C-alpha cells in the first residue's frame, strides 16, 4: 500500500497514556484526532513486550513528539522516510541544520 502523506504537525501531536482493563499501563504518540500514530505506536508496542515501564514509554513518546516537531520545522517527512527505508542518521541532523543555517541572514 503506498504511503499517504499526513500533516506531520498533527501526526506527532501529543503523548497519550492508556490504562488497560487489567490495570496494565501503556503510553504512545497520538495524532490530533487522538488516534495512535502508526510508527511511534509500533515502537512502543515492541518496547512494551519487553516489560519497559509506562513511564519510560511516555518519556520515549515525548522524545518522538519533539522529533516530529523538529522534522516539521525542517520540512522532513518522517513517515515518507520510514516508508522508503531512509532512516535518520547523524548526517541528516547536521546536514539539515547546515542547510537551514546557510539560508539564515545574520
Describe this entry's structure for a reader.
This protein is elongated. The chain has a two-stranded antiparallel ribbon with strand order 1-2. The N and C termini lie far apart (45 Å). The chain has helices spanning 8-11, 38-48, 54-73, 78-84, 90-102; strands at residues 14-19, 25-30. It has 106 residues and is mainly α. The chain has five helices and two strands, in the order αββαααα. It has one domain (8-102).
Characterize the biggest β-sheet.
2 strands, antiparallel
Output the structural class: mainly alpha
- Flag low-confidence runs: 97-106
Envelope shape: elongated
Work out the number of β strands.
2
Per DSSP, the total helix count is 5
Summarize the structure.
This protein is mostly helical. It contains five helices and two strands; from the N terminus they run αββαααα. Helix 2 runs antiparallel to helix 3.
Characteristic terms for this protein:
106 residues; mainly alpha; 5 helices; elongated; disordered C terminus
